[in-house]
Design brief:
The structure is a single chain. The chain is mostly helical. It has one domain. α1 packs across α2. It starts with a helix and ends in a 9-residue tail after the last helix.
Length: about 90
């Protein structure tokens, strides 16, 4: 397996896992009484919080709802498509 193929596969896996974690994070926002520092919720909270915290300073909650996980789902999906999509920048010719 070539190094570029392995890199593309790893990057695609990273984007897919992060998108899935942000979707789970969106679902967890529906239950504000949950403690995100306890297992199993911390499995979702710890990898996503470094992305969400800085964006929360720029984007306030809309109607009391934190929309930053939704924004990150869009960002990761866009990056995955731009870099690894059918005509992406990192695809093999």
């Amino acid at each position: 397996m070539e190094a570029s193929t392995l890199f593309n596969w790893s990057l695609g896996l990273f984007f897919a896992v992060m998108t899935l974690l942000f979707i789970f994070r969106i679902i967890l926002t529906w239950y504000p009484h949950l403690n995100l520092k306890q297992f199993p919720y911390n499995v979702v909270a710890y990898p996503t919080e470094p992305f969400l915290a800085p964006l929360r300073k720029l984007v306030p909650p809309l109607g009391g709802v934190d929309i930053t996980p939704i924004i990150w789902v869009g960002i990761f999906t866009l990056l995955r498509e731009l870099l690894l999509g059918q005509q992406g920048l990192l695809t093999n010719f």
